[in-house]
Amino acid sequence: MTATAVDRTPRRPFPAVRHGLTLAWRSLLKIKYNPEQLIDLTLQPIIFVILFVFLFGGAVAGDWRDYLQFVLPGILVQTVVFATLGTGIGLATDIKTGIFDRFRSMPIARSAPLVGTVAGDVVRYVVSGVVVLAFGMVLGFRIHTGPLAVLAAYGLVLAFAFALCWLAALVGMLVKSPQSVQGFGFMTMFPLTFGSNIFTRPETLPGWLEAWVDVNPVTHLTTALRGLLLGGPVAEPVVYTLGWAAVIGAVFAPLAIRAYLRRT
């Protein structure tokens, strides 16, 4: 293939999509050759549920069964939010191992490795969310709405995670090692998840902390999920969540793409 043909390939939308999906499949195949990644998808969500339900349930709600109904939608959010770090770690690992040098020599769209990583990680988010909800139902969590509301809840979580993964992708492009992504990511994700209404009601917190919780996008997402899974008003938190997702994506997606093009 000539250099001219290689240059033309990225400009064609359908081959670019096909290349991205192929590399998304490559991202998923990593699990086959690196089985410990299954821990992030299956065991870690289960540990989150067991740890927070049984450790905090009696102290916060008086009974872990009542607390399970309150906290499980939030744990689902927390699990998927933490899973977005995998996007940055995967990109940083690929750059460090030099695989992007190989990609540059192939007749594929230049954007395909980035698109493939993000698309593959969306599947990981779905798996993590399903594990949380399934294990919660084994413990006694009950959905009080219908299938459409459940699908809407998953769609909302995925939309927010998709926007947040661009932040992780940007970090992965800027740092020098995968370990740095994890360290920086936890500094960001902990205030978002623990400084929210996932584990307790905002009105029980000090005023300064309650003010942060009220504007935290994870709070709006968790409130929306509780309404969609357990019943209650959802219009306002859904609108806020989608608005935050749009803002986060609009800010960090272009920055991540620019950093990606600069590094590759």
Give structural notes.
The protein has helices at 3-8, 13-33, 37-61, 64-83, 85-97, 99-104, 112-139, 147-174, 178-194, 207-215, 217-230, 235-263. Helix 5 (85-97) runs parallel beside helix 8. The protein is built from 12 helices and no strands.
Put simply, the count of helices is 12
Mean pLDDT: 83
The total tally of domains equals: 1
Helix content: over 70%
Gross morphology is globular
Order of helices and strands: HHHHHHHHHHHH
Compute the gyration radius: what is it?
20 Å
Q: Strand count, sense and closure of the main sheet?
A: none
**Secondary-structure content class:** mainly alpha
Taking pLDDT < 50 over at least 5 consecutive residues as the criterion, the unreliable ranges are 1-11
SSE layout and pairings?
Layout: H1 3-8, H2 13-33, H3 37-61, H4 64-83, H5 85-97, H6 99-104, H7 112-139, H8 147-174, H9 178-194, H10 207-215, H11 217-230, H12 235-263
